[in-house]
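Section handout, structural biology tutorial.
Before the tutorial, make sure you can parse a SMILES string by hand: atoms, branches in parentheses, ring closures as digits. In the record below the ligand is S-adenosylmethionine, and the chain has 387 residues. In the tutorial you will relate the predicted structure tokens back to the input. Do not try to memorize them.
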Amino acid sequence: MVLKLSKNLRKSLLRGHPWVYRQALDSNVLTQAQVKAHKTVALKDTKNQFVGWGYYDSQSPIAFRMIRLGADRPNAAFYQQQMTRALKARESFISPSTNCYRLFNGEGDGLPGLVCDVYNKIAVLQCDGYGAEQFWSKEKIGAWLVDQKVAESVIFKPRQKNAQHVFGAKAPQYIEILENDQRFEVDLIQGQKTGFFLDQRDNRKYVQSLSDKKNVLNLFSYTGGFSIYAASGGASSVTSVDISQKATDQLQKNITLNNFDPKAHQVVTEDVFEYIDQNKNTKWDLVVVDPPSMAPSESAKPQAIKKYIEIFAKASKQVTPGGDICFSSCSSHISFEDFSFIIQEALSQVRRNGYVCRVSGQGSDHPFPVSCPELQYLKFVHVRMVE
Ligand SMILES: C[S@@+](CC[C@H](N)C(=O)[O-])C[C@H]1O[C@@H](n2cnc3c(N)ncnc32)[C@H](O)[C@@H]1O
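Predicted structure of the complex:
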């Protein structure tokens, strides 16, 4: 099966950008090809020169994802080489104090659309979209993961659905993990994403370093990633707010698991907007605000920017003079430039000012191709407020 470009994207693809949008494919060739989603397809440019091999997604605006440039068709040995390379790159994460990490980060590991998170000997596979779900053989990947002793059980977690068994021993619903010596219980079946937000590991460690003797507010806390690190960093009190009862129940368990005094932790199951409105006069020394992605598409971006400004303005008001606030966003459609604008607008709306102390993103087990900065989705900015 061969697809053909209708736009001259040869240079961009050769530079390593891995995607072709539908409007850049020759629609006549596409109709004739009757591409099967699970098959490897070749891509030629407008002059019929070979570009490389990838797979087709009939349901996504990203219609073709490049797997291998050049004429050599990817085979089992090629995929094993990519997976081995990814595993080798993670060796520095696996230690007695951390047993959870992202093993495959899709395009950033040359395995487009394929995600694999490892939680203490259980691997959770996830695919980015219909095409990836059809293309990647979960069973073959599962067998490799067990053979390499990366995992004893492999499950597949379709987005917004419960997990399914793939390979190896049957996985339990809950697993205890260790991240920088902090203990968390992860719900592998019903948890959000693959169960835990591994991408914030380095930012959580940073928040730990800011927390000594502070009273901390963690907004959109999920199961308490930032809360547990703040407590272990010496916070005098931690308040965590999330709308999901499942997440806050899990957070209570994580407090106990780490032997923290439950009296120093307030766990609130509520809408963050309502919580802030009811606690307008309370101030915190350190606020972390990590809302869910609000821009699922480029067209949703203007509305999402408004929403981020509103949340960040409200959160900024809760910070003591001279206190700290960490803003985060996981929306890939919001760039670092957009994010800087959002923070400036938010502070200006509530007449606060501050200094940017740190700008960071996802951890290094979430790599992305140099030529595809769209995949640098996580943004994290620490601002110290003016007194
Ligand atoms: C990106 S996750 C936060 C991840 C967390 N910071 C961590 O490190 O694990 C966003 C969280 O926001 C919660 N959420 C979504 N809308 C909310 C709302 N209106 N009020 C409170 N929590 C909300 C979701 O339940 C989810 O747990």
